[in-house]
Amino acid sequence: MFKGILIEKDESGYRATLKEIDDTELPEGDVTVRVSHSTLNYKDGLAITGKGPVVRKFPMVPGIDLVGVVEESSHPEFTPGDQVLLNGWGVGENHWGGLAQKARLKGDWLLPLPAQFSPQQAMAIGTAGYTAMLCVLALERHGVKPQDGEILVTGAAGGVGSVALAVLSKLGYTAVAVTGRPEDAEYLKSLGAAEVLERALFSSPGKPLGKERWAGAVDVAGGHVLANVCATTKYRGVVTACGLAAGMDFPASVAPFILRGVTLAGIDSVMCPRADRRVAWQRLGTDLDIEKLQKISQVVGLSEALPLARKLMNGEIRGRVIVDVNQ
User: Fold this and answer.
1) What local confidence, expressed as pLDDT, does residue 245 receive?
2) Dist. CA 305–CA 312, nearest whole Å
3) Which of 36, 33, 43, 34 is nearest to 64 (CA)?
4) In a 10 Å sphere around its CB, with 0-12 CB exposed, 13-18 middle and 19+ buried, how is residue 100 labelled?
5) CA 169/CA 198 separation, integer angstroms
6) Is residue 318 pLDDT above 90, yes or no?
7) Which residues contact 118 (CB under 8 A, 6 or more apart)?
């Protein structure tokens, strides 16, 4: 038996509860992991609260991230005792995830835990930080350099934004943070933000083109925010889009793309190939100031994850939430 958060849906309704789960209930997979830490992400908040159709089958253990030690393996790459890491791959949606003390997974989804990070540090980064690194890599791939100008980071007080600010500043970029929580301004500046702007400047319908300012952007919002970011991006600037916190719609025009040559680069962390994941985690090992992880993250136990999921959906959580599944 092991403890885990289980989401169920039946005639009694939709509910997420902390339960004792029998090992025999674990799903199919060629690697069994004794989980030490998971995380609480926006997608996990949607799953636990039922505010979004994230969970595809029931019952489901949420948790799109996990780190732990291999207990059993028939996969050629992993043996018992190996420390491993997982982000995405539909875990917590289609396959039982990390918010439990044990997980059974496909070995092809796993990466060895990078030597630079402890299990807790790896989860302080988690999917959010790995996604932020994918955004930075996309900016680099499209030729955006620190001397080209400011990089805008929306949803800056969240997990993706917090890590993006820390990485961009270490790489020499001038990062500008956007947040709906002005009380977090000092926190954002401590991560490397050169300036903090209020979300209200971007959240209403805007013009097809605005004054050029941004050489690039990391956007977690979508909706009017993304449209306004694109409209104010410089000639041949690059906007990376990785979230939908402000909506799935994109109420924009083609003007930024055909008149200024702006590139809108989509960032998917869920099904990202393993080779790209390895590069992202390698770069996090060199381009993220590990000391800043303490500012970005807090550690909670499994039972605390349930009420915190509701706070997360209300925009009341800053940075990253690490879940120690044995606490």
Assistant:
1) 86
2) 10
3) 43
4) buried
5) 20
6) no
7) none
